[in-house]
Write a structure and sequence with these properties.
Number of helices of chain B: 7
Largest sheet of chain A: 8 strands, mixed
Largest sheet of chain B: none
Largest interface: A-B, 14 and 17 residues
Radius of gyration of chain B: 12 Å
Mean pLDDT of chain A: 98
Low-confidence stretches of chain B: none
Radius of gyration of chain A: 17 Å
Distance between the termini of chain A: 17 Å
Shape of chain A: globular
Strand order of the largest sheet of chain A: 6-3-7-2-8-1-10-9
Helix content of chain B: 55-70%
Low-confidence stretches of chain A: none
Oligomer: heterodimer
Shape of chain B: globular
Number of helices of chain A: 10
Strand content of chain A: 15-25%
Structural class of chain B: mainly alpha
Number of strands of chain A: 10
């Protein structure tokens, strides 16, 4: 049976790798120190696999078939999806190792525990969602991607995301496919994509969200409706991935970094669960 | 709205389609069941009209970049005041 050895959550803004120099140097350094702290902890843990929870920005899925949750069970994942995106992110295209046995276990466990995620058993490519944080964290651990719809309403509710995370923890602790597993959520915090407000940061929203995350209080953390999330931009709906991580952790988080970075278009945060 | 979204998505994903759209927009647009106002707007690279109709901002923005509308031009369109007080 595996140990859930760490739960982390980070931003995945393209600017983090694609145009870091545009940010205020003090803010950039603070954010990179946060990523560095997670990288160090990951190196200490040496997990057999990382369950990485993010959205995907219409790189694979579309409105013809848009899962609320999906589990990717393939043996490897291409990222970034195109060479062009690789240049934009300044991340060379490569294949990331998957962890199919663990992924299939999680999929089966989910179905047996009243969750019905979509199955993606191949052909799933990464965009900034996974490439940016995995590159900054410098990890080569196999990755089980889990996708939450945070890009097109209606979305899964915050409570459902948190409960998905609780289920995910149960799945990890019940697997024989790994001994040590880390959960890594990516996305958020406030930002607007393709909307007139792009470049705005809702710092009040972000800091309040981090306070709730630090409290470990599931009720406060899931007490969001879409109208409140919309005040922090269409991109703020990505905090659903953080709620999955919070559900998996079942514990308060420490904020390792938070900076509002208009040049990266995001309230940029890094956090780790106290487990 | 589905076929508009499909067009936006496929233009972004398929460079050959985007190239064909530049050379023969009507030929490409004939392949999608668009509302007349949607068809006119995308032919004119008028992303503001499509945004105001409620198209997904991610799909709009990514498509704009793919078919040669710069980031600055895209956001300028969205931020422009509407003539006649319409917002």
């Amino acid at each position: 049976m595996a140990e859930l050895a760490g739960v982390f959550a980070t931003a995945h803004s393209p600017g983090l790798t694609g145009f870091p120099e545009r940010a205020d140097p003090a803010k950039r350094d603070a954010v990179m120190r946060g990523f560095g702290e997670v990288a160090k902890r990951l190196a200490d843990i040496e997990p057999d696999a990382i369950v990485a929870v993010s959205v995907e920005h219409f790189t694979n899925f579309f409105l013809a078939n848009l899962p609320a949750f999906a589990i990717v069970t393939s043996g490897r994942h291409l990222g970034p999806v195109t060479a062009e995106m690789g240049e934009f992110l300044r991340i060379p295209q490569r294949h990331y190792a998957g962890a199919p046995d663990l992924a299939q276990h999680i999929y089966r466990y989910a179905l047996n525990h009243e969750f019905d995620p979509a199955l993606a058993d191949g052909g799933f490519d990464f965009d900034e969602n996974f490439c940016v944080p995995l590159t900054l964290l410098g990890t080569q651990a196999p990755v089980v991607p889990i996708v939450v719809n945070g890009v097109n309403p209606p979305y899964p509710t915050p409570k459902r995301c948190y409960d998905f995370g609780r289920m995910l923890r149960g799945a990890i602790e019940a697997t024989t496919a790994a001994r040590s597993v880390v959960v890594l959520a990516t996305g958020g915090l406030s930002h607007w994509v393709g909307m007139p407000e792009a470049g705005t940061i809702n710092e009040d929203f972000d800091r309040d969200f981090l306070v709730r995350l630090e409290s470990g209080d599931a009720e406060r953390l899931t007490d969001y409706d879409d109208a409140v999330l919309d005040t922090a931009g269409n991109g703020a709906h990505e905090i659903r991935t953080w709620l999955v991580a919070a559900g998996a952790a079942g514990a308060p988080f420490d904020t390792l970094a938070y900076e509002p970075v208009p040049e990266w278009l995001t309230g940029t945060a890094v956090a780790a669960a106290r487990i | 709205m589905y076929f508009l979204h499909k067009l936006l998505w496929e233009l972004r994903r398929d460079p050959a389609l985007a190239a064909r759209f530049r050379d023969d927009p009507d030929g490409v647009l004939d392949e999608y069941e668009l509302e007349p106002v949607e068809r006119a707007a995308i032919a004119a690279r008028d992303f503001r009209t499509l945004y105001d109709r409620g198209a997904n901002p991610y799909l709009l923005y990514f498509c704009a970049l793919q078919i040669g509308v710069s980031r600055a031009d895209y956001y300028e369109q969205l931020r422009a005041e509407r003539v006649g007080g319409e917002s």
